[in-house]
Design brief:
By secondary structure, the protein is an alpha/beta fold. The chain contains 30 helices and 9 strands.
């Protein structure tokens, strides 16, 4: 059940002040550390009640009523706090949390109340926080430079105290994680502060905490540093705007703290939010920031070992396991070491070592819109950023345009730019065709090796589960030729679940084919879909309005622009520039004629991809003639299938003199 705090008991008893609860508790346990938090058991509630009855503040009947409420909550939530009726397993203790917990409490207190952990200044002021919010969060550097080069530009000209504040936010992000060595963490702080004149000290306590990390935060702490620090800054602004009562509630009640952290503004950053949840109440929450791991642990112990059902709240269920295994306060069972790891980790029969049931994505170099341009895109950076911005909001976009506009090529690179890294493992491509069915794409029955039919997940559910197991990293499913089949038929109920507002358990639906005892299904928030559509294919099915409402559509026009011309001139350096300019004018004139034809229109123009030379091409003229004769002319023949004279005329206009 939700832990009972002094404030909760004071409200239930109806006494005038929380001190009417805290004071008798301190008398009852005079040696309890002054700053430790109270989670009350039944004896505590009864003792405080009797104390206040003796002083005439409440009636005995009121105390009996509150005790009955306590008992009912404990009985109703069988998987919550309290001992189970079976012996707990043996376990090893996570015995090095102390330094991180101590420094995190100091940091959170100065974040709320002001001060500093590195200097004797008060750097945690609203003014300084607003400075780094405006300079860092609201002005992301989208160049391909490294993090610290970009940071220097973002914080250029800010005063020393604001820079120290940023270093302390950075410290909070790095404090508990094991990805970086102590020397790296210290180096990062020193790099932020290298141009400051203020005297600062990375204290022995901080160094001790850096040397005693308590969890691995996953790939996000390495590849989403900007997003995580931005979210932390927004969280701090939110924290300081709380009323004293809201702050006191969150510091006393772990679940109120969790609600505060999860409800604060900013990007999702599940691992970082999980870190903050733990750091705020380490006596209640485990140092486990992977939601899949939490669920695997709960599924392993409930009900097989505990003989009780889980409550459905993994943190409450894990806290109950803590009370069951180690009722002594301050003892944390280590689920990542023997013997507890064997309860919930699976073992690969082909491997000697155990494998945690979570996909692990490797680190990769940063990838941005500028990276797309360097790869050879002729589209403008403004247009590409507009796609990514809208995609981030809708989670689903369609790139539509004439043949040869690079839809497939640009879709994959937009996926990498959305992720921020070139992670092939996070991007999967499929192609629709007239025979693509729901059973192919989502889930269906397939013959197994034993001759029986097995229920098999298709590409959509496979990639969705990979995304769910790596919640800090955006995952992208590319659907090529999106409207070549029947999208509504292939998607089924996924047409609803793909919607950005339906990505939660509250909006879950039953699938057409379900496993035994499988709950209703929903797609994870970090799954993004991008489709491509060839607007010139007369055989394509129309996309219905329900599907259009769930996708943002972007037109990709032929980019026969200066960037394309310059690419050709750079590629064919021996060719006179005037000759390439002449070819450009002819191709543009051809597209103009296509666009103005009432039976065709702009959607039938010939895209720039037709006119991008392969590696083998060494001379401009034979390459250009070959493209026109073998690729462009057949396409024109499709357009004017009943008018070969027009095709011959346009081809002649393209090739005359070449």
């Amino acid at each position: 059940m939700t832990p009972w705090t002094p404030k909760k008991l004071a409200n239930l008893l109806g006494v005038a002040s929380n001190e009417h609860v805290r004071q008798p508790l301190r008398e009852r346990a005079p040696n309890r550390p002054a700053r430790s938090r109270w989670y009350l058991d039944r004896d505590d509630v009864a003792f405080v009640g009797r104390h206040n009855v003796d002083l005439g503040r409440v009636s005995a009947d009121k105390v009996s009523e509150v005790l009955e409420l306590f008992d009912n909550e404990r009985d109703e939530q069988t998987g919550a706090h309290g001992s189970f009726d079976v012996e707990p397993p043996e376990f090893t203790v996570l015995d090095h949390e102390g330094p991180v917990i101590r420094e995190a409490e100091h940091l959170l207190n100065v974040a709320r109340n002001g001060g500093s952990v590195l200097t004797d200044h008060n750097v945690w002021t609203d003014a300084n926080i607003n400075v780094i919010f405006e300079r860092f969060v609201k002005q992301p550097d989208i160049s391909g430079s490294d993090f610290f080069t970009k940071l220097d530009a973002q914080l250029a000209g800010v005063d020393d105290d604001a820079r120290v504040l940023f270093a302390e936010v950075f410290l909070l992000q790095m404090l508990p994680i094991s990805q970086f060595r102590m020397e790296t963490k210290i180096g990062n702080i020193e790099r932020v502060l290298r141009d400051t004149k203020v005297e600062y000290e990375i204290t022995p306590g901080i160094i001790e905490a850096f040397e005693s990390p308590v969890f691995g935060g996953g790939v996000a702490f390495a590849i989403r540093r900007f997003q995580q620090l931005s979210m932390l800054i927004e969280f701090i602004r939110y924290l300081r705007a709380l009323s004293d009562d809201e702050w006191d509630d969150a510091r006393e009640d772990p679940l109120a703290w969790r609600e505060l952290v999860m409800g604060s503004p900013g990007t999702p950053e599940p691992s970082l939010r999980g870190s903050l949840i733990y750091l705020g109440h380490p006596e209640y929450f485990f140092p486990i920031v992977s939601e899949p791991h939490k669920h695997q642990i709960v599924d392993a112990f409930y009900p097989e070992w505990t003989k009780r059902s889980a409550t459905g709240d993994v943190d409450v269920d894990l806290a109950a396991l803590r009370d069951w295994m180690s009722p002594e306060a301050g003892t944390t069972p280590n689920f990542y070491s023997e013997p507890l790891d064997s309860y919930w980790m699976y073992f690969d029969e082909d491997e000697d070592d155990e494998t945690v049931a979570e996909d692990v994505l490797p680190e990769a170099a940063e990838y941005t819109v500028e990276s797309i341009l360097k790869d050879g895109a002729f589209h403008s950076a403004v247009d590409l950023r507009a796609v990514i911005s809208r995609w981030s909001a809708t989670k689903n976009v369609i790139l539509q345009g004439p043949p040869g506009t690079g839809k497939t090529w640009i879709a994959r690179r937009l996926a990498f730019a959305l992720i921020g890294r070139k992670l092939d493992e996070a991007v999967r491509s499929v192609q629709f065709h007239p025979g693509t069915s729901y059973e192919d794409f989502v889930r269906g029955w397939r013959p197994g090796s034993d001759g029986k039919l097995d229920l098999v997940d298709g590409p959509l559910l496979q990639h969705a589960e990979r995304a769910r197991n790596n919640p800090d990293v955006e995952h992208v499913l590319i659907i090529e030729e999106f409207n070549r089949g029947n999208p509504a038929q292939s998607l089924g109920e996924m047409l609803t679940l793909l919607e950005n507002t339906k990505r939660s358990s509250r909006e879950a639906l039953e699938l057409t084919y379900m496993y035994d005892d499988e709950p209703a299904y929903f797609l994870p928030e970090n799954l993004y879909v991008i489709g491509t559509m060839n607007t010139a294919d007369r055989s394509l099915a129309l996309v219905d309005f329900a599907l259009r409402r769930r996708f943002a559509f972007f037109d990709l026009a032929p980019q026969l622009n200066d960037a394309w011309v310059n690419h050709l001139k750079d590629r064919f350096r021996a060719e006179p520039g005037s000759r390439i300019d002449d070819a450009s004018r002819r191709v543009t004139a051809m597209n103009q004629e296509i666009a103005e034809n009432p039976g065709l229109g702009p959607s039938f123009r010939i895209g720039h991809s037709f006119f991008v030379p392969e590696k083998e091409a060494s001379e401009f003229t034979p390459w250009f003639r070959s493209v026109v004769e073998s690729s462009v002319a057949p396409q024109l023949a499709e357009y004017w299938h009943d008018d070969p004279e027009t095709v011959d005329r346009i081809v002649e206009q393209l090739l005359s003199g070449f």
